[in-house]
Amino acid sequence: MNPLVEFCISNLAKGAQETYEILEKDPNIDVLEYGCLSYCTVCDQTFYALVNGDIVEADTPEELTKKIYQYIEENPLF
Fold first, then answer.
1. What is the superkingdom listed in this entry's lineage (predicted)?
2. How many other CB atoms sit within 10 Å of the CB of residue 41?
3. Which of 15, 20, 70, 71 has the most crowded CB, counting CB atoms within 10 A?
4. If you average pLDDT over residues 46-73, what whole number do you get?
5. Tens digit of pLDDT for each residue in 1-16?
6. Chain-wide mean pLDDT for the chain?
């Protein structure tokens, strides 16, 4: 079972697409996009993704990518 990273399409359009594309190439991560994840305030203020159901936020797409990998490393599924 791979970690699941979920993105809001609005946040992707805002710039998180860069993170999405990097993670999508990783065969050890499942990546999904949704029309809305219902975190509109977070989405409006920062870059974010849900990683295994938990919010991971960052100021830049590059930082978001690093934080997602860090979260996955620190919170293994098994």
1. Bacteria
2. 7
3. 20
4. 97
5. 899 999 999 999 999 9
6. 96
Contact criterion met (CB below 8 Å) for 32 and 4: yes
Asked if 8 contacts 34 with a C-beta cutoff of 8 angstroms, the reply is: yes
Q: What is the 3-state secondary structure (H, E, C) of the chain?
A: CCCEEEEEHHHHHHHHHHHHHHHHCCCCCEEEEECCCCCHHHHHHCEEEEECCEEEEECCHHHHHHHHHHHHHHCCCC
Cα separation, 68 vs 58, in Å, equals 9
Q: Which residue has the tokens 């599924």?
A: 77
Mean pLDDT of 34-45: 94
Say what angle helices 61-74 and 17-24 make with each other, to 10 degrees: 40
